[in-house]
Write the structure tokens for this entry.
Amino acid sequence: MKILLICGSLEPGRDGVGDYSRNLKREFVKQGYQVFLLALNDRHASTLIENAAHKDISEVRLPASMEARERFIKLQDITETFAPDWISLQFVGYSFHKRAIVFDLAKQLGRLKISASVHIMFHEIWQGESRDSTLKDKIIGFFQKRSAIAVVKALKPKCISTTNGYYQKSLLKAGINTNKIPVFSNMPLGNGSRKKIHERLPAAFRNNSTDYVLACFFGGFHPHNLLAARIKELSVNISDQLNKKLIVTHAGKSGGIKEQFAELHEETGIPMHVLGEWPENDIADYLGTCDVSLSNHPKVLFEKSGSIAAALYNRCPVIILRDGFAEDDQKREEIEELKYITDIKRFIDQNTGFAEKYSPENAAEQYSAMFKLSVKS
């Protein structure tokens, strides 16, 4: 099978969907597929970038500064010379327009001559769907939705996917049927015996680690009004139920994280440590040593978070510290909002067989099965 993967940008570490596409490509190649990776509107590239890393893998990055007509001529050339069986558009509206209103993208795609089967993965949809949406959100979301529908009509995909049930329901209301392929871990599988980051924690903790519950935020950190209260609540539960103390850490990159953690420490009195940026293997090792991961991501959308998937892939259950903005009927032992966890010990010590669900291999197998089934239908 030959697959053309299209996304907005491919700058390593600067574009989540670009990193996702690269990892997905790697898994497809392991399955014996030929893969061509194309960035159609790369804001991190100043000129055309073409790489042939392997005889079966090609990569092209078309800079956003290139005229749209030239970029789509190049896309047409690639579809004709590579002759893929499948074209998979990894869609995020903001990758192609500053307000994610992509009517021009739909128009340009509609002009292409495509003989391959087409797939669209909606990593993001339009704003204005939640009960907390403002009038402005709803107005912008209306145009985002109409333009996303225009992309679907232009490409006439054989199958469409998204990452989570909430997006699935929203897309269905717009007349778009999808299947669900949750995001996989954006980190490799770590080795808990390697403790490079762990050794940077205070000696008071390392010398008495059995007296503590080690918790970690990873990646983008989005504070909210209830966060300090939730951290204190978690600390009290740990003290009451386990007779232990909570220590909270952050690993990875997030703007303003040192200031945010300092404020939380002042409010809660709980030890808070910013560990900074590290190579991905070290991050993965660290996640595997933590008792629990913490997240400010709404649970209803957890399946679109590579950071949450990274913790779960590394056998670290996740506690959500914010309220949801929509009804959530998902029940997963490995991830839960704090207010619904009654037994902290049971949650932390649960069986970690869930990890495999969040592997890139599992996601690639779901894609492969979908492509094969769609060809038969």
